[in-house]
Amino acid sequence: MTENSIKLGRANVSIIGKFELLVRKDSKKFKMTNINSFIPKGKTVDEKVNFMTEAGEVETLLIDRMKTYYNPEKGAVEAHNVKVLVQHPQVYIDGYPEKQWDFLVKEGLKALKSF
Fold this sequence. Notes:
two-stranded antiparallel ribbon; 2 helices; alpha+beta
Protein backbone atom coordinates (compact mmCIF):
# COMPACT_ATOMS: atom_id res chain seq x y z
CA MET A 1 0.00 0.00 0.00
CA THR A 2 1.28 3.47 -0.86
CA GLU A 3 0.13 6.93 0.17
CA ASN A 4 -1.79 6.97 -3.14
CA SER A 5 -3.91 3.96 -2.20
CA ILE A 6 -5.94 2.61 0.70
CA LYS A 7 -6.44 -0.98 1.81
CA LEU A 8 -10.04 -2.15 1.44
CA GLY A 9 -10.40 -5.80 2.34
CA ARG A 10 -7.67 -7.57 0.42
CA ALA A 11 -7.48 -4.97 -2.34
CA ASN A 12 -5.57 -1.71 -2.59
CA VAL A 13 -7.85 1.03 -3.91
CA SER A 14 -6.12 3.87 -5.75
CA ILE A 15 -6.92 7.39 -4.64
CA ILE A 16 -5.41 9.06 -7.68
CA GLY A 17 -7.69 11.35 -9.68
CA LYS A 18 -10.89 13.20 -8.87
CA PHE A 19 -13.69 11.71 -6.80
CA GLU A 20 -17.38 12.51 -6.64
CA LEU A 21 -19.41 11.98 -3.49
CA LEU A 22 -23.08 11.76 -4.45
CA VAL A 23 -25.65 11.97 -1.66
CA ARG A 24 -28.47 9.53 -2.25
CA LYS A 25 -31.40 11.65 -1.12
CA ASP A 26 -34.35 13.35 -2.74
CA SER A 27 -32.80 16.47 -4.32
CA LYS A 28 -35.98 18.50 -3.69
CA LYS A 29 -35.77 17.85 0.06
CA PHE A 30 -31.99 17.95 0.44
CA LYS A 31 -30.41 20.86 2.31
CA MET A 32 -27.50 19.38 4.25
CA THR A 33 -26.43 16.06 5.71
CA ASN A 34 -23.47 14.65 7.52
CA ILE A 35 -21.36 11.52 7.61
CA ASN A 36 -19.89 10.41 10.90
CA SER A 37 -16.48 8.94 11.58
CA PHE A 38 -16.35 5.21 12.23
CA ILE A 39 -14.50 2.49 14.08
CA PRO A 40 -13.10 -0.09 11.64
CA LYS A 41 -14.05 -3.71 12.24
CA GLY A 42 -11.78 -5.28 14.83
CA LYS A 43 -10.48 -1.92 16.10
CA THR A 44 -11.03 -0.05 19.35
CA VAL A 45 -12.62 3.33 20.07
CA ASP A 46 -9.11 4.79 20.23
CA GLU A 47 -8.60 3.72 16.59
CA LYS A 48 -11.68 5.56 15.28
CA VAL A 49 -11.16 6.95 11.78
CA ASN A 50 -11.98 10.67 11.73
CA PHE A 51 -12.28 13.18 8.92
CA MET A 52 -10.01 16.22 8.54
CA THR A 53 -10.51 19.93 8.03
CA GLU A 54 -7.91 22.65 7.78
CA ALA A 55 -8.38 23.09 11.56
CA GLY A 56 -7.67 19.41 12.35
CA GLU A 57 -9.57 16.16 12.93
CA VAL A 58 -13.36 16.17 13.14
CA GLU A 59 -15.83 13.37 13.88
CA THR A 60 -18.44 14.56 11.38
CA LEU A 61 -18.08 15.76 7.82
CA LEU A 62 -20.90 18.10 6.80
CA ILE A 63 -22.11 17.68 3.22
CA ASP A 64 -23.97 20.68 1.79
CA ARG A 65 -24.20 19.64 -1.86
CA MET A 66 -25.77 16.68 -3.63
CA LYS A 67 -22.45 16.21 -5.43
CA THR A 68 -19.18 17.05 -3.71
CA TYR A 69 -15.91 16.72 -5.59
CA TYR A 70 -12.59 15.76 -4.02
CA ASN A 71 -9.13 15.87 -5.56
CA PRO A 72 -6.60 14.04 -3.35
CA GLU A 73 -3.74 15.64 -5.26
CA LYS A 74 -4.96 19.06 -4.08
CA GLY A 75 -3.72 18.52 -0.54
CA ALA A 76 -3.41 16.35 2.53
CA VAL A 77 -6.91 17.15 3.86
CA GLU A 78 -8.71 16.02 0.68
CA ALA A 79 -6.45 12.96 0.35
CA HIS A 80 -7.21 11.96 3.94
CA ASN A 81 -10.97 12.43 3.52
CA VAL A 82 -11.05 10.37 0.31
CA LYS A 83 -9.23 7.56 2.14
CA VAL A 84 -11.77 7.73 4.98
CA LEU A 85 -14.72 7.78 2.56
CA VAL A 86 -13.37 4.78 0.61
CA GLN A 87 -13.11 2.79 3.86
CA HIS A 88 -16.39 4.04 5.35
CA PRO A 89 -18.93 1.21 5.74
CA GLN A 90 -21.84 3.37 4.53
CA VAL A 91 -20.15 4.75 1.41
CA TYR A 92 -20.80 2.79 -1.77
CA ILE A 93 -18.06 2.83 -4.39
CA ASP A 94 -19.57 3.16 -7.85
CA GLY A 95 -18.30 0.57 -10.28
CA TYR A 96 -16.78 -1.70 -7.62
CA PRO A 97 -17.16 -5.33 -8.78
CA GLU A 98 -20.28 -6.95 -7.31
CA LYS A 99 -18.53 -10.13 -6.12
CA GLN A 100 -15.83 -8.12 -4.37
CA TRP A 101 -18.48 -5.88 -2.80
CA ASP A 102 -20.36 -8.93 -1.51
CA PHE A 103 -17.09 -10.14 0.04
CA LEU A 104 -16.59 -6.76 1.78
CA VAL A 105 -20.16 -6.97 3.16
CA LYS A 106 -19.54 -10.54 4.37
CA GLU A 107 -16.33 -9.40 6.08
CA GLY A 108 -18.23 -6.57 7.83
CA LEU A 109 -16.23 -3.84 6.06
CA LYS A 110 -19.15 -2.43 4.04
CA ALA A 111 -22.90 -2.26 4.49
CA LEU A 112 -25.41 -3.75 2.10
CA LYS A 113 -26.35 -1.38 -0.70
CA SER A 114 -29.61 0.32 0.18
CA PHE A 115 -30.39 1.55 -3.34
